[in-house]
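pasting for ref
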Amino acid sequence: MRPLHAFLAVAVAVIWGVNFVVIEIGLEHFPPLLFAALRFTLVALPAVFLVPRPAIPARWIVAVGLFLGAGQFGLLFTAMHLGLPAGLSSLVLQAQVIFTVCFAAMALGERPGRRQLLGIAVASAGIVVIAFGRGAHVPLPPLLLALGAAACWGVANVCIRRAKAPAGPGLLVWSSLVPPLPLLALSGLIEGPDRIRTAFTTFHLGSLAALAYVVVLSTFVGFGAWNGLLRRYPTATVAPFTLLVPIVGMATARVWLGEQLSTGELLGGAVVLAGLATLAVRTRQKPADPPPPLAEPRSPLTGPRPAPAGPLRPLTDRARP
């Protein structure tokens, strides 16, 4: 990966790491499914009238919208609403790296190299170290919902890679038309009309600022750049950069929400960074061996054709009998 694109991938990870604290602030006012529905409604409208539809089959637009929008964020917001802390949420969601690499190997035939497997293994080991320090007393349902969100993100990554949409915000904007209706329907059934009415009739500046952050920075800037990287590079090269998200997420949660960082978390964060460093190092390609020389033409009856002995002498120079 080029250095500029690696920097862009890190910047996206920072935006998404801060995003978990922002989501926590938004959930203080908005119910989770309604919050996710509002996010993608504001991404799609009015941009859908200004951005042309990407020249890809409609099934890929629907698939990305369902898995990335309704699946990932509907499950993630619900998990955080049920008590999964912001820092731990940023950690568990990075299981999408494993899902992405596995799904890409099955659906796209992308086999990660040894260096990529080593980097993923080291960074994943760091996440396990952090999880042992944080996840012992977290209820099981929110953890399972967050893992489901990670699986949905992995499927969406493969769909984006498979769709090969042209560069630009087209796929992001048009796929955002898909999640609002199913999310609003689920919100009405699960969260109830009264909570939806209260969210729309009361004013909360912090939650409105959180909604603006998740729409503009997290979605337009973050996923816009992310989709561009997935179009340019294999998924096994791009996906591991999101392992930096929990480092930023837990640090931001410590500063803003007062979540404590244990020694295990700091050690695990260092291991994650070591894995990312392994992924970022570019290996020099071995130059190809020169092609072997062409074989001497061979006659099927007499074997190799003999080389000429030299220039022919004129007839007058030949020995006379």
